[in-house]
Amino acid sequence: MQTVRIQTAQNVFIEYQPASIGDRILAALIDYVTLYSYVILVSILLGSMEVNEIWIYIGVLGVPFLFYDLVLEVLLDGQTIGKKARNIKVVKLDGTQPTIGSYLLRWLIRPIDVFFSGAVAILTISINGKGQRLGDLAAGTSVISLNRQVGLAETVMPQVQENYQPLYPQVTSLTDRDVALIKEALHVHKNSESPDYRLLETLANRIKSILQIESTMPPMAFLHTVLKDYSFLTSN
Q1: Which residue would you say has higher pLDDT here, 115 or 22?
Q2: Mean of the pLDDT values across residues 162-176?
Q3: How much is the pLDDT for 26?
Q4: Can you tell me the mean pLDDT for 110-124?
């Protein structure tokens, strides 16, 4: 299966695995179990209260059942209860935050995707290779797995000598996400057949802005130095 490349706000591409068909099916089953459990429990409650008005049943049972996916994906940042359980979520392929319109478009096309017991969605996802059903293709979204397979080169901090002298003590103010982004960018740059030095320059300028420092060091050397400084200062 292909990977999905998501561009961050710092113009760095991070690769994710599309959610597998199995994960998406399991997520859907969990959502259905959640919905049907809700319907059964509320039906019992309304019956015990001797509620007979059909419009109450439609409002209390039908509306949540109909809008479940749309409302939860909007409120839970691209996830439903089932998606949270499988650690998958809806994202925009251009790296921007999915809008209500994106979720709405996916929801409107969902009846076509689930036609023939979901055969249309399964076929589309299998052919597309980017975790996209018809609704995703229309909305420019994909469903990715948040369980990223991270290589050793991306997780281990650079080794520094005990007598190493850090240049930028401000690096301790960086967040784990900032450091992970630097490692990711350097790793992608190193393994790319056609590396884009502008991305490293953009990220280096971003880190300089965060740390409020000035440096004439080349972007790649600067980012490597930041990692070394961070590794030394946070381990001592």
Answers
A1: 22
A2: 87
A3: 96
A4: 89
144 vs 96, higher pLDDT = 144
User: Looking at the whole model, is its pTM more than 0.85?
Assistant: no
Those residues whose C-beta lies under 8 Å from the C-beta of residue 61, and which sit 6 or more positions away, are: 39, 42, 43
Q: Domain range spanning residue 40?
A: 4-145
Check whether residue 32 and residue 131 sit in a common domain.
Answer: yes
Handedness of CA 206, 210, 216, 222 (dihedral sign): negative
58 pLDDT higher than 70? yes
CB 76 within 8 A of CB 103: no
Same domain, 111 and 75: yes
Q: What is the DSSP string of 108-165?
A: HHHHHHTHHHHHHHHHHHHHHSSS--HHHHHHTEEEEESS----HHHHSPPP--TT--
**Which two three-digit tokens encode residue 43?**
């039906």
3-state secondary structure of 205: helix
Our count of domains for the chain comes to 2
| Domain termination site, one of 145, 171, 201 | 145
Q: 197-211 and 176-191 helices cross at what angle (nearest 10)?
A: 160
Considering the domain architecture, whether residues 58 and 161 belong to the same structural domain is answered as no
